[in-house]
Amino acid sequence: MSLADQLVQYVIAGLSGGLVYGLVALGLTVIYNATGVINFAQGEFVMLGGMSAVALNAAGMPLWLSAVLAVAIVTAVGIGLVRLAIYPVRDRPALSVIIVTIGASLVLQGGAKLLWGPDAVRLRSFSGDTPIRLGAGGIEPQRLWVAGLALLTVVAVHGFFTWTAHGKAMRAVSLNRAAARLCGINADSVVALAFGLSAATAALAGVALTPVEMMRCSQGTHYTLAGFLAAVVGGLGNGFGAVVGGLVLGLLEALSKGLISSGYARAIALGVALLVLWLRPQGLLGRRR
Amino acid sequence: MGTEATPLAEEPTTPRPGIRPAKVAGWALLCAIALAPVVARSGYLSSMGCQIATSAIIVVGLGLLMGYAGQISLGHAAFYAIGAYSSAILTTKAGVHPLLALCAGAAASALLALIVGTPALRLHGHYLAMFTLGLGIIVQIAIEQGKRLTNGFDGITGIPALDLGFICLDSDPRMYGATVVALVGCVLAARNLVDSRPGRALRALHESEEAASACGVDVARAKLEVFVLSAVMAAVAGSLYAHTIQFVSPEPFGVQFSVQLVVMMVVGGSTSVGGPVAGAALFTLVKQLLQDAGEKVRWVGYLDTVLFGSVLVLVVVFCPKGLAAVRLPAILGGRTFVGETRGDS
Known about the structure:
Low-confidence stretches of chain B: 1-15, 328-345
Distance between the termini of chain A: 48 Å
Oligomer: heterodimer
Strand order of the largest sheet of chain B: 1-4
Distance between the termini of chain B: 19 Å
CATH class of chain B: Mainly Alpha
Shape of chain B: globular
Largest interface: A-B, 54 and 56 residues
Largest sheet of chain A: 2 strands, antiparallel
Number of strands of chain A: 2
CATH class of chain A: Mainly Alpha
Number of domains of chain B: 1
Structural class of chain B: mainly alpha
Strand order of the largest sheet of chain A: 1-2
CATH topology of chain A: ABC transporter involved in vitamin B12 uptake, BtuC
Number of helices of chain B: 15
């Protein structure tokens, strides 16, 4: 296989992995805009989505139904998290809320370990494993599923924020909380909606990803960190930037995996992202505040 | 929901009446831990005591960072690892004196903390937590992959005992004694820092960053100093760990341990001396109990993460100053927590 063909494969893998990071980052951004804090349990939604889809599928449900149910379950978990853990500390300093989300991530991770054990699991691919020919190499069809679903979700989230009343209410809260409340927007339900929405998008990413990358209960932390770095590289608070940041991070990881070292790939991607923040804390697309 | 960077728990400005059982328990535990291996001459107790004291050293540093700089670190296992691996590599492969290796580890940690902390602490908000989480993952990958230096997953064996010249710490109880001395040293250093000029600056900072800044406190620098200090403490703990176990492998230095350290700190309470020790002791004992039980019934061993996570959430919600701040009358009177918010203090 020529270098050009290999590069094409790395780029495709990077873009589909990057879209997943972008989706997690988008969820983080939605929550950040609604509450002003970073949700450290965001990656656990990805893990839970994948793991519960595998469990439902193993219980005999058809693939599509287990995927849909998995997303629904994780959405419910996200809203439950707000009601049980976030509401009681919503008037406290940001640090309290952050520590609560760290605790929540431990509970979700530990719950998954208790339910399904610590081993990695894999979901059946949505449309078989026969690679699609592309030049001298091929790509796994599941990668296209991942990329397609992620793109659709991004478009859907964009549509939600542009055209629906709930989306507009959420944007209003992130712009000016007090003014939004004066206009009759219920800030509490906006927070619940934010968590539900971002849990759903993260879970969808997890379901789509589990056939290509194995999923295990300790995997969530990686997605939280990658999603956060993607969100800040793109400029924290900017949904479009979050997706772009995710793509940058995914490409970095896939290219360093292929061209430099598979063992160090994650470290290189994280290191470069941290370096970007060091040099340009407002992110690539953000403006200096 | 607050968006400004303020610490989780605030120390009361006036001494409050009432006996704090958890504080007494913390001191009692400290004494008990310090004496147990001597009384029982048990290797098991010594190694438990070592684990508790080592974790407590790191938690003291984390407590300073959270209680006074209002920041949390999710990467202190990395500094711990740097201390342990510096000691391991320098003593086994370069024949450096253990004490010198310990200092080298501390210096390397301080340098890394400086590099990571400088940008992260200048930013408003909680970037430090994510920066340190990233650092933790990178350091772990480096340890696993840098096989030439660290032997990867196989780990480094044959780390020599810590020889102080007048005494060689070649047994568990002796090593344990040294760890307790180091812990007491760190606790005293932390107390002195709190009562010194930089300490007052830090307290001013935790009341109000803007006010402190207006009074001439270099906010970013004060936070950075605490962060570096806590990294040094973690590195020293790592070196002591390496000389106690005489073997290091990547496993105990993962992100999980960083998060567990935060649990110990929050549960124990960050603004008192007994808090970190009580938190570390409680956590280590429960973890060990679950691990032992898990060998008989498998799912009990898997309970740990869920349990620590729920305790963390419950403590933040109901007892934001940590268990060390719970007072006896409060428990008897039915009040479950002590926690003035910013408004009424």
